[in-house]
Amino acid sequence: MSKIKSLTYVLLLFVIFFSGLIYAQDKPKDNANKLNFKGLTFQPGYRIQTRYTYDFQSNIHDIMLRRVRLKGKGDAFGIAKYYVEIKIDNVAQEGKTPKAKAESVFLDFKLRPALNIRIGQYDVPFTRSLLTSDSKLLFMNRSIITNKLAKFGLVDNTQGLLIFGRPHNGRFEYSFGIFDNEVFEKSGSQSSKWTKNLMPAGRFVLNLWDSTPKDGGYADYKASYIGKGKRLAIGVNGVTLSDVHEDTLQYTLSAFGADIYANYEAISFEAEYDSYKKEVSGFGWYVQSGYVLPFESNDYKLEPAVRYQEFDPNKDAAGDKSTWYSFGLNIYLKGHNLKTQLDYTVKKEETNEVDNNTFQVQLQLDF
How large is the average pLDDT for residues 231-235? Predict the structure, then answer.
């Protein structure tokens, strides 16, 4: 698909989707962005991330629509809340063919103030960074280890049943569920990766200082609160998938992780360690921090950020570790809803001593 066709496709979806917003302009002010259809409400949303990337190794300059998201949420007859998000990623990116597909589709049922059930497709409860929307990250890309876990199907969006809540006024968080693993979904007799089992996963968090909102839900973290509040959150999580078949191998796939997040007004700090075990065992960790510069402006805020991360795909083998250093600047025009991000990443790999550093700039609109 050419870049022109890809961009035209996204523009057409944009126009169709926002016809609902145009219609909503005639509604009363309190419901200007929410439609009501006999007990079924609908509130639209949209996200676009336009990104420029320069790869030093390939010497390629690339401008793309890194993410396009069409969102809708609302109440279902006073019984449940629903959320739908359609994604079109990597539009006009070199070597990529964009496809529209469901990112999140789920129903939430509130049984008690701190007891909720979610059914559908959504994020597996593993790691704070992967439960933070890509619209609210400190850097444009997540860490190496989280991307590796996603390739195993242990994290990110998949189908399942989840129980979650925030008891004791939000001081604690729990989320436990059973999920499908699409990477090891058996498809035909020739499939080289498969399992017949489901994948249990769970996460527990202790929130100190300011507690999280009791009704905030699930996977609603931010990597930066842009100078607001005082938070200290400590989380642990685990996931496992038994009787996995991959070619001639048979093993149990599992991962464990722990993370800590703190922000004291203008300063934010986040660290995470994750390990996995399959036919080999690997691990990775990162630490990152941001600081909102102290100048008075109602229009925008500046936040320099730094990150250090390591990844070892096989802890029993030598010479395969990756070490990356990232330096970024976030320019918040209207919080996370409208912002520009810049970052430069220095990549050091023991197995590949080449200049594969990257520089990126991204403009985001999200609501």
Answer: 96
Could you tell me the residue ranges of all domains in the chain? 1-112, 130-367
Q: Cα–Cα distance between 76 and 74 in angstroms, integer?
A: 7
CATH of domain 130-367: 2.40.160.10
Q: Which residues contact 257 (CB under 8 A, 6 or more apart)?
A: 126, 127, 236, 237, 238, 272, 273, 274, 275
Average pLDDT, integer, range 268-296 = 95
**pLDDT tens-place string over residues 67-113:** 999 999 999 999 999 999 999 999 988 888 888 999 999 999 999 98
Close Cβ partners of 25 (under 8 Å, ≥ 6 residues apart): 32
360 phi-psi bin (left φ>0, alpha ψ -120 to 50, beta other): beta
* For residues 27-32, average pLDDT: 50
Query: According to the per-residue pLDDT averaged within each range, which of 88-97, 209-218, 233-242, 243-252 is highest?
Result: 233-242
Contacts of 361 (CB under 8 A, 6+ apart): 51, 52, 340, 341, 342
Structure tokens at 113: 């103030």
User: What is the torsional sign of CA 270, 83, 156, 328?
Assistant: negative
pLDDT at 130: 94
Q: Which DSSP string do the residues of 156-209 spell out, in sequence order?
A: SEEEEEEEEE-HHHHTEEEEEEEE--GGGB--STT-SEEBSS-EEEEEEEEEEE
Q: Are 157 and 83 in contact (CB under 8 A)?
A: no
CA atoms of 281 and 309, how far apart (whole Å)? 18
Assessment of whether the complete model's pTM goes beyond 0.85: yes
Predicted local distance difference test score (pLDDT) of residue 214: 62
Cross-strand pairs, 178: 161, 200
At 337 the three-state DSSP class reads coil
